Amino acid sequence: MTKLLVIMGSGETTPTMIKPHRRIFESLPGDSAVLLDTPYGFQLNADEISARTVAYFAQSVGRLVKVASWRATPPAGLERERPLTALRSANWVFAGPGSPTYALRQWRDTELPSMLTEAEALVFASAAALTLGSHTIPVYEIYKAGLDPYWEPGLNLFEQLTGVPAVVIPHYDNAEGGHHDTRFCYLGEPRLSYLERQLPEGTLIVGVDEHTALICDLEAGTATVVGNGGLTLRRQGESVRHETGAVLPLTLDSPTGTFISAVPVIDEPVHEAASVREVADAWAKRFDECLGAQDVDGCVSSILELEQAITEWTADTNVSDDADHARGILRGMIVRVGALGSGAVPFVSQLVQLREQARERKDFAAADQIRVALANGGVEVRDTPDGPQWTITDLAG
Prior knowledge:
Elements: E1 4-8, H1 18-26, E2 33-36, H2 46-61, E3 65-68, H3 78-89, E4 92-95, H4 100-107, H5 112-116, E5 121-125, H6 126-130, E6 135-136, H7 139-144, E7 152-153, H8 157-162, E8 166-169, H9 183-186, H10 189-196, E9 204-208, E10 212-217, E11 222-227, E12 230-235, E13 238-243, E14 246-249, E15 265-266, H11 276-292, H12 296-312, H13 322-338, H14 345-360, H15 364-376, E16 379-384, E17 387-392
Parallel strand pairs: 1-5, 2-3, 2-4, 4-5, 8-9
Antiparallel strand pairs: 1-10, 6-7, 9-12, 10-11, 11-14, 12-13, 14-15, 16-17
Helix pairs in contact: 11-12, 11-13, 12-13, 12-14, 13-15, 14-15
């Protein structure tokens, strides 16, 4: 039976959620972990998403995660029994990005929903999190295809596990729209207000911000907010917000389905970067400070830290130009070092070593980027049987 129900608003495979993931795993006695690939099963890059997710948990969280493939409802027989067997033996089940309505079509009227409530830890993020409530927002259909707002019937697992009739909304504080309202998982206030009036009386809206997790400990009867943002509990247009670090009582037998605490316990909140763009901008600032102070070690350290951050954020499923932005900053750092000329020897030597390390781990794309950036800065690198050799060329013009 489920002991932990974890809802992540976004960032489920980014450095932001490493600590929460580790915290969850440490609380479990077993080590059988399964990734359910249904929400993104319709995507042509589904294999790539699975591979990146498995690599993230292995490299960043330190846990081996196996894939239970249920991309489309399988027919009776071996094809169906394989994922079901994996789920039966799993004490940790995870599902994340994709389409909530696609996932519901594959899960509804199958053995799978009841099986999910048997895992000791059920961790649902982003699209998968939307399916947990009694009603589900059809995000793509409303935000992308322009259909009039409507509810899709959800799995209602949140109420089954907590006793609280609720709708779960991840990406609650989304701000991608800039000047137009994309809060509440891209609905915006007018659409959410309209949909809220269609809900059964007493239904609670559980809004989880991006790069934030709500950890419901069903045995302890608590709900803990961790990550960068907060939790919003809303009913009939009235909202109560709880910031990261809040520990709320999870009332399992409340007739109104409310678990709002007037005075929650607050742990010390810790802010983690919410994107690789934010990380890159921070290291760029640090690099500028070190360059101005002629701090060679500090400059090289900034470059190395940014390169490592780019690697750590490769599993992020969020579609944006943040990674390109970070790579551009990294190349700019290297070019500026190369442009220093003969005074750049300590910088260049360590950057050439960084390129060698990339080649050794067969990350040839990163190695080529470093070589090209050095060349743009006037440093020519040649690979020889004795190792790489470099010279500073003429930078005239």
